[in-house]
Amino acid sequence: MDINRYSRQILFEQINKSGQQRLSESTVLIVGIGALGTVISNQLVRAGVGKVRIVDRDVVEISNLQRQILFDEEDAEKSLPKAIAAKRKLERVNSMVEIEAIIGNASRDNIDELTEGVDVVLDGTDNFATRYLLNDICFKKNIPYSYGGVVSSRGMTAFFVPKQTPCLRCLSKEGSDGNQTCDTVGVISPVVDMVSSLQVTETLKYLTNRGEYLRNTLRSLDIWFNQQYDIKLNKPDLNCPTCQLNQYPALQKKAKEEEIVLCGRNTVQIHLLNHVSLEQLESKFSGIQSLKRTPFFLKVTIDEQISLTIFTDGRVLVQGTEDQVYARTVYDRYIGS
Amino acid sequence: MIEVLFFAELREKIDSGKIPMDAAGKSVKELKEMLVAKYELKTLDNVMIAVNEEYTTESTILADDDVVAFIPPVSGG
Ligand SMILES: [Zn+2]
Fold first, then answer.
1. Where do the TM regions start and end (chain B) (predicted)?
2. How far apart are CA A183 and CA A277, in angstroms?
């Protein structure tokens, strides 16, 4: 352990040498490396957490740079996958931390594997479906879950600990989505930094064995209109399907899978295949003028409005529409099904 | 009287972060119905509700001086 690198953190007597040692032996999973995820990973890697696993499905765009602190103009120009761009930056910050970058969705199929050997799961996602998935796997496997969400000038965060606190489902029922998102009402960078800093602070307390100082509230804040409110995490909902009835709904197979989802502004994601060969597709599309292939994806510009970004894991982003039926039509026309 | 706090888009719709309501003795469910009617809201079903900083269910009966908070969950990130 590099004592000099962490000297200021070790001088903070709550952490000291023993806490630093614990951090270096810890593993965290960060799901989503966007606004929250870049701040979270930056802080945890600098703090010297031993191993950081990051998962993200998107590529860097110029409109990310206003708040996603790990990325720069070059990443956006190259449309680098966020997981890869983040890993490169983080390794330059602290080469002693092992960074594992995964390009893809966190889903019911891979969440067990993603959380293997993990001490805390941190939430950098942008939708409640994935949050319930994280909540359910964490309570099933007895892993603390550091929830955070931001939009506009508002944020919300809680550190859920199985067997000690209620869970996200106790406080927020499924179907809560459909609220405002960053793509509809925007978001300012300071609230991102505040919420993710709170997510990381609770994680540091937990990992350094200072659980007695956990805040134990769901904190809501609006830093523009000056509101703050804490809901105590003291009593679970006795009918909660996750932390009380151990049913973990997000981990159960549903009759009809949602393979087609609206994914941000003007983009529909379609995920029907588990793997595609970008090479084969590239030759299939050789008649189309605008093709761009990287090791991670193939981007096909169909016309002025529509483009397809195809990833090796089978995901296809249909950009230029929010009409899911139309997106599926384009998909069938160019990819086939 | 009780006090009702509104956050996020609810604060915008109601155009106030805090209003007094004559709802002591009523249940949280009844308070929700009163607010939906009074402010022509679509629904308050997907909103977190706390009474005096404690998470609560619809059957809770409100008492004088209670502070009820309605907080829409935040989904971005
Ligand atoms: Zn629960």
1. none
2. 31
A220: left (phi over 0), alpha (psi -120 to 50) or beta: beta
Q: Domain residue spans in chain B?
A: 2-71
Q: Does residue A87 carry a pLDDT above 80? A: yes
**Domain made up of B2-71: CATH architecture:** Roll (3.10)
- Per residue, the 3-state secondary structure of A72-119, as one string, reads CHHHHHCCCEHHHHHHHHHHHHCCCCEEEEEECCCCCCCHHHHCCCCC
- Number of neighbouring beta carbons within 10 Å of residue A220: 25
Q: Which residues lie at CB < 5 A from ion ligand 1?
A: A 166-167, 169-170, 240, 242-243
The answer to whether A58 contacts chain B (CB < 8 Å) is: no
Cβ within 8 Å, pair A171-B17: no
Min CA distance, B26 vs chain A (Å)? Answer: 21
Chain A (230-249) residues lying within 8 Å, Cβ to Cβ, of chain B: 230-235, 237
Given an 8 Å threshold on Cβ–Cβ distance, is B8 in contact with A180?
yes
pLDDT tens column, A233-249: 998 999 999 999 999 99
Is residue A198 predicted with pLDDT exceeding 90? yes
Ligand 1 center from residue B8 Cα (angstroms): 24
- DSSP-derived 3-state class of residue A291: strand
Chain B neighbors of A32, CB-CB under 8 A: 77
Q: What is the DSSP letter of A253?
A: P
The predicted pLDDT at position A256 comes to 46
Residue-wise pLDDT for A203-227, tens only, equals 999 999 999 999 999 999 999 999 9
